C-alpha cells in the first residue's frame, strides 16, 4: 500500500538532503492546487517560511483574486505573506522576450532578492513594491506550537511546487529542443537556490491528497490554453502518445532517474577526457594534440566539451572539427577565444592583440578557461567538503570554519596561492561573472565583518604590480564571492548550516 503523501514528502526531503534543522523556505504559492498542497505539507512538516506570491497582472480580476486567496491562506496558516505586482507585458515588450520568459525572469529575480542573494532591482517591470502582511497570531491546528525562545529560522531556498508530471513535460520539451544530457534529466530537486520537494509525486496524487484534506484552491484560466508550450505537451502531445503507450508516464518517470544518473556518468567521463586531452601551455594558451584527439570517441561530442569552457557553441565545435583536415593557420573564433590549427596541435588562445576581460559562467558548466588558467566547477553535498582528503585541508580553509566549530581566533592568514574555494551553494546565483579586478572593487574578506577595497587588500598582502595585473575576481549577483587564488568573501563561506557546497578549483597555466 502506498505510504501517505506526507510520509513520502518527508522521506524525499531526507533522501535529497533538501532541509536541515533551522532552515526555512520561501514558499512560492500561486494559489493553484500544486502550490496549495506544497504549503499544506510544509506546515504539517514544520517547515518555516513566508508565503510569497507574484501577481503578473495578466488576467485582470482573476489575478487579483489569486493574490487575495494566497493572502488569506497565509493568514490561516499564521505565515508572513509577501506579494510583488509586475507589469509583465511591459517588461516582455521592453526586453523583447515572450510573456512566459518575462514572468520567469521577474519571478526568480524577486525571489532571489528576498533571499538576499541579489541586489535590489531598479524596479523595471514592477508596478507596485512588494508588500508584507503580518502573520496571523493563530497557528493552524495541524502545526506544532513553536518552541520557546527558538532562534529565528534562516531563509535558505525558494520552494516551488513542480511535481513529477511537470518534470516529465520538461524532459520531453528539452528532448525536442535538443538540450542534451542535462536537459534529459529534467529539473533537479535542488538547483541553485531552488528546491522542488514535490518532484516525487504525480499531479493525480496531489489532487487526491487535496480532496482528502479538503484543501481549496483557485484555477488559472490560462492553464487551459494550448498556446503555451507546456500546456501543448500536457494536453496534446502526452495524451496522444498514451494512446499507443498507456504506461508512458510511468516509463518516462523511470527514465528521469536513469537520465540523472547517466548525466553524472557522462560528466565523469568527459572530465577524464578533458584532463587527458587539454594541455595548458604557457600563459593563456592550451593545446590539444591532433593525433591523440583523432583517436578519441565520440570525437565531435568530446571536442565540443573541450571547447565549451572557451565560449564555443555546438555549431562552432563542428567547424573546429573540420580543422583536423586543414593546414596550419586556419582557425575558428568564439567571442573570447580562437582555436587555431597548428602542425600537430589545435591551439586555444585569446584573439591576437586582445585580452579577455570577463567570462560568463552558466549553471551546469564544469570548467571555464581564462587567461590565468582554468577553473573547475562542481556541486557537492556539504559533508563531502568536510571529509576532504588531507592534501586539500589547507586549501579547504579558504571556505572558513563551520559555524558550530571552535571560537574564531585570528583572521584567516592568506597564502601565496589558494587554488581551492568552497562556497555555500544556496548563496550563489548563476550566471557567475569571472572578470579582471578594477579600481573601486571591494569584498568582505573571510573572517572579517567589514568590507575592504581590493586595492587595500593587495597592499596588505604585499602584491607586486605584476601580481595585481593578474588578479581576477568571481562575481555572483554583483557581489564578489572569490578573489581568485587569494580569499573568498565571508558572506559566501560554508557553515554548519550549508547543505550543498560549490567547489571551485583553479589550475594555473
From TrEMBL:
Q: Which UniProt keywords apply?
A: ATP-binding, Cytoplasm, Ligase, Nucleotide-binding, tRNA processing
- List the SUPFAM superfamilies: Adenine nucleotide alpha hydrolases-like, PheT/TilS domain
Instruction: State the family named in the UniProt similarity comment for this chain.
Output: Belongs to the tRNA(Ile)-lysidine synthase family.
For the ligand (ATP), the binding residues are: 30-35
Q: Does the keyword Phosphoprotein apply?
A: no
Q: Could you tell me the EC number(s) of this protein?
A: 6.3.4.19
Q: What protein name is recorded for this chain?
A: tRNA(Ile)-lysidine synthase
| Predominant location category | cytoplasm
Q: One Pfam family, please name it.
A: ATP_bind_3
State the reactions this protein catalyses: cytidine(34) in tRNA(Ile2) + L-lysine + ATP = lysidine(34) in tRNA(Ile2) + AMP + diphosphate + H(+)
Quote the function comment for this protein: Ligates lysine onto the cytidine present at position 34 of the AUA codon-specific tRNA(Ile) that contains the anticodon CAU, in an ATP-dependent manner. Cytidine is converted to lysidine, thus changing the amino acid specificity of the tRNA from methionine to isoleucine.
CDD domains assigned: TilS_N
GO BP, sorted A to Z: tRNA modification
Which PANTHER family did the record assign?
TRNA(ILE)-LYSIDINE SYNTHASE-RELATED
Localization of this protein:
Cytoplasm
CC terms in the record's Gene Ontology section: cytoplasm
> Any idea where the Lysidine-tRNA(Ile) synthetase C-terminal domain is?
432-506
tRNA processing recorded as keyword = yes
Q: Let me see what the UniProt entry remarks about domains.
A: The N-terminal region contains the highly conserved SGGXDS motif, predicted to be a P-loop motif involved in ATP binding.
Q: Which organism is it from?
A: Dinghuibacter silviterrae
Please give the SMART domains that the UniProt record associates with this protein.
TilS_C
Quote one Gene Ontology molecular function term. tRNA(Ile)-lysidine synthase activity
Gene, per the UniProt record = tilS
Please indicate which superkingdom the organism of origin belongs to: Bacteria
**InterPro entries assigned to the protein according to its UniProt record, in alphabetical order:** Lysidine-tRNA-synth_C, Rossmann-like_a/b/a_fold, TilS/TtcA_N, tRNA_Ile_lys_synt, tRNA_Ile_lys_synt_N
